[in-house]
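Researcher: I'd like a structural prediction for the single chain below. Treat it as a standalone chain; there are no partners to consider.
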Amino acid sequence: MKSIAGAFGAIILLSTPVVFASELLAQDIAAKQQSAPDPQFLQAEDETPWLYEGSNVPVDREWQFGEIDNGLRYAVRNNGVPPGQVSIRVRIDAGSLHEEDSEQGFAHLLEHMLFRESKYLGEGEAIPRWQRLGATLGHDTNASTSPTATVYNINLPAFTPANLEESFKLLSGMIREPVLSDANVAAEVPIVLAEMREQGGAQQRVSEKTLETLFAGQRLANRRPIGTPETLGAATGETVQAFHARWYRPENAVVVAVGDVDPLLLAKLIETYFGDWQGEGPLTPAPDFGDPIPLAGSSGGTTVGELAVITEPDMPRSLTYAVMRPWRPVQDTVVYNEGLMIEAIAQAIINRRLETRARSGGSFLYAQVQQDDISRSADATIISFAPLGGDWNAALADVRGVVADALATPPSQEEIDREVAEFDIAFASEVEQSRVTAGGRLADNIVRAVDIRETVASAQVALDIFRGTNPRFNPAEVFAATQKLFEGDVVRGVYVTPVSGEAEEAALRLALARDTSPDENARLANRTISFDELPAIGPIGTILERKDIGLLDIEQLTFANGVNVILWSNNDEPGRVSAKVRFGAGYRAFEAEDAPYVSLGEIALVSSGLGEIDENDLDRLANGRKMGFDFSIEDAVFTFTAQTRSEDVQDQLYLFAAKLGMPRWDPNPVLRAKAAAEIGYASYSSSPASMISRDLDYLLRDKDERWATSTPEMMAKVTPEGFREVWEPRLKEGAVEVLVFGEFDREAVVQTLRETFGALPARMPLTPEIANRLPAFPAPDAPTEVLAHRGDANQAAAVIAWPTGGGTIRLRESRQLEILTEIFNNRLMDALREKLGASYAPQAISRWPADIPQGGTIMALAQLEPQDVPVFFAEANQIAKDLAETTLTEEEIARATQPLGQLYSRAATSNFFWLLQLEGASTDPKRVKLVPTLIRDYSSTRPEIMQLLARRYLAARPGWQLAVIPHGQELAETTPTIRPAAPAVMGR
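Model: Treating it as a single chain, here is the predicted structure.
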């Protein structure tokens, strides 16, 4: 049986030089390791690792820990997923909560500054240097700032000993010795302000007011990581340097390195480049983050504290209230974790009851209870829900009634067992798949553990602790945990409404303080359903043909009813199976008047059940299993997708086939989806990004109504009967292709396919009209589309797009187009972000649908200030012109091909990647023949090819343009003066 690794290796050797010398590379690494002295500060196995001090959780011995005498701590580990990659994380224990009032935003600004210039990276060198190392900007080289920490992330693909050492050297120079000059601060602040502008609007105002209310009196109330325009505008090299000197010290740093290499080498490199780091002066203690404090004069017990009613005309209604408790460090012991697991079961029971109530047509669209330790500032139980209308009081009473019942009466053992089964399968799946857990994820787990002051446990230890807790999963202990969740000194809340005067703080306070009667009707009936009880889909199907497709040992089956199947059984991802069903005609199947029902289908089609099974029964069927049922609508096909397990794949296939063969048409999921669409429509106008998400697909397809987002007036006419009328024939027409990739019993799955998809009735063929219905693109002379949003007056967005193609005949060309688009993206980033400071994250994207012969685009977009929209169009058009008229250098091509080739090389180590490459191959064998060149097509090209493609697509016609500007403003017709250029650098 050929594995993914074998397939990947074969294709790499045939197609690309990216990792062609793997054996020589391994020998080179081994020689380097043999010559390297042992690290001095690794903790011995008989020592308690620094992460586990005060804990009796079994140490994950896959990790090795070290603590240098300067205070820096580190963790290293060998991991070969994906092959050849090393993931490095540097966590600094300083975030926005560590800032003084005059320094707000400095932690995040400093994150940007480290990528601008540092000891080993001159100004403007960061982006090309990391790209030459194969690291994709944003994906492999990134950073993030939270209230409690700043974390720098590097994923180094296809490393060599030389570039591994270079990466540690560069990273150490960034962390320890950034160049924090006035000029660099002045160049970076506009980029941060652009990022701030993109975060603005109604949603941001709600977020800020919520933090101010829930954390009143604490630093978290007014310490946004992005900062304020005033403090950022006042930043200087000296003040930013002071923040860096205070917090960027070895005592505040943790370095984590995981990869396909001996961890002793990683430890040596950490000690080499961080071992002599010394802080300046005495260590500054972290500030007191504060506690949630009850209102002055309260007499004890739970008190309804600070409340806020926020009126935002473009935001849907939502109500959040929280029971607040002080956060305190814990002893991360086995008993403590058992308690967490009991609390998790208690929350899951309440949430299932709330979801069941919402599904049955209650007064709220959704509701959820969640306990969270928030930024080491509060231990909070947060209750959030969305009222279906203006009667928020009734919705609040209904939600509190469900909670009150959970606090009044212990749950049944059956309810507990149901949730325990869900958690058990999640923990067991982690154990099964631990061998294929990516190194970057493991590194992130350490970073999170440090942040919350707890430990990490191996997947097996986590499962053992969970199963060891089983005797405590009983009504009495779960009931006690439920009550503990709602104990606290103070309750605070926020109501968001689009209607002024709909609520007042006094009324909200009264409603939260009022006693609530338990709602026993929310409890779930004790009922179990087995797949054994479900009816057969039809007579067992006949396989007409069974053959190898000519690639590895991937197999194709053709059934008498016309269903095609592609199977690949391999054991490279233990216990994991990817399954996908492609059927029907996708967007081609609909008429313009069907538009309101199209988007509802993605939400309500699966939820409406199958046969005699409704949505709640589907949950019961999936209990204790890892199953999925994602549904999506593509240009030319509908899809069901799931990530499942070897043990569950056969039942997963039954569910998919039953949805096609015996669908159910419950009205409640349709009515709920309709309500969600009506409630959320106004929020599309709240920002440029929301407007783009609402209208871009519709406009790019020349205003084809099938892609339109339906207005509330259109939704008002939607009925469950109309939903069925539109969707029922869609489930019966067009070919079906099933793909199953992963670890499974091939013959058992083949038999299941005979009983499920092979048993479906013959499909109705697509009519020629539907089969030939293709998306259009706006005409070359189409004027610039202008949309008006109701968000902040300094927010705008712009899009420019060119049509390309589609289908598999020129699929290799589409891969080269991705390289061209990456080059376009690099130039756009340099022009708009680094030189002009006009946009935080401009991007260029290539889309090429393989199932139809047209519909592809190259598109560039950015969020900007309104006056910079013409600048965007001018810059994008100039980039397109230059790419068509001038020959690219090998250096610029390498900046695109190295990261792109590495990105696809790593993706090619998963079953789902191969599934995506081969979907549609049962009826289009060209897709199989195109696989061997895949990596080469993405990772190498020539300047003349790039120029040819630029002439063919970017210069063949004007780009179609869309501007989204504030309501009441006009789109500038002339390009304003270009601001002085600043050197190109890399930030977050």
